[in-house]
């Protein structure tokens, strides 16, 4: 019997998702890498193909038809998904609620919340049918504690926290593990996206202290998914040592 597991990773073109892909490849987990930037997907596929089988899927998590189509299009040897990493997401803007941008609000709720739901909806039925599977949601400390100007991003991550709990309640009876990793500040392209390419502002977000690296989070993700089937790490917060709460470090 083939015991090799297959992981479906959203947001694998950058940051935390890309490092989870690299970490899983080291451990011979078959990979389905998702994102919108095909060149990045191709590069990562090339990099990891000597370690494991890799398939790429290019879709926007906001497009529910395409999410379903992409999952349905998987070749036979990638169809059985053991591990779903719900990671795709970003912050857009850091403005007080009174001057917040409606397009930013839509982006955060559509990607971080509805996108996560669409991908989960496409994959959960096969896990229920098999009575096994593992869903790991990448939440945030922003889903545990709100910070000034974080309003809608924090709301989207609080929604991920609620969905993590709700999914676990509904799915544990089907032998499916559901858990979350909630990181604090991790140096990725996150702040470039949040500040819309203002790289000076983005860099400032990680200056004067040592933030987490995506690799730190990826190692924890592998630890979580490599526990025996009766062990479910339900909810985990990880911060860099310099950070003790969401309000301490200035986010510019
Ligand atoms: P990055 O910006 O480095 O990566 C974000 C990933 O999400 C990219 O691969 C991007 O791929 C993908 N993505 C964004 N929008 C979409 C979309 N509409 N459809 C499909 N994929 C999309 O950020 P991080 O690695 O930091 O973020 C990953 C997760 O970690 C997010 O959920 C974030 O909220 C969370 N997080 C980050 C923290 C941090 O400090 N960095 C801390 C706590 C949580 P592409 O653009 O190719 O589509
Ligand atoms: C990303 C970390 O603190 O910038 O979720 O919101 S934070």
Number of helical segments?
8
Characterize the biggest β-sheet.
7 strands, parallel
Provide the CATH topology. Rossmann fold
Molecules bound to protein: NADPH dihydro-nicotinamide-adenine-dinucleotide phosphate, 2-hydroxyethylsulfonic acid
Which residues form runs of ≥5 with pLDDT under 50? none
Shape: globular
Instruction: Specify the CATH class.
Output: Alpha Beta
CATH architectural label: 3-Layer(aba) Sandwich
Number of domains: 1
InterPro entries: NAD(P)-bd_dom_sf (IPR036291), Sc_DH/Rdtase_CS (IPR020904), SDR_fam (IPR002347)
Keywords: Oxidoreductase
Organism: Kordia antarctica
EC number: 1.1.1.381
Q: What labels describe this entry?
A:
alpha/beta, Rossmann fold, 7-stranded parallel beta sheet, 42% helix, binds NADPH dihydro-nicotinamide-adenine-dinucleotide phosphate, binds 2-hydroxyethylsulfonic acid
Walk me through what this model shows.
- The chain is α/β, with parallel strands linked by helices and 252 residues long.
- It contains eight helices and seven strands; from the N terminus they run βαβαβαβαβαβαααβ.
- The chain has helices spanning 15-26, 38-48, 64-72, 102-130, 151-171, 190-194, 199-204, 214-225, and strands at 6-9, 30-35, 54-58, 83-86, 133-138, 176-183, 235-238.
- The longest helix has 29 residues, at 102-130.
- It is globular and about 50 Å long.
- Bound molecules: NADPH dihydro-nicotinamide-adenine-dinucleotide phosphate and 2-hydroxyethylsulfonic acid.
- The site of NADPH dihydro-nicotinamide-adenine-dinucleotide phosphate (NDP) has 29 residues, from helix 1 and helix 6.
- NADPH dihydro-nicotinamide-adenine-dinucleotide phosphate is lined by residues 10-17, 35-37, 40, 60-62, 87-90, 111, 138, 140, 183, 185-186, 188-190, 193.
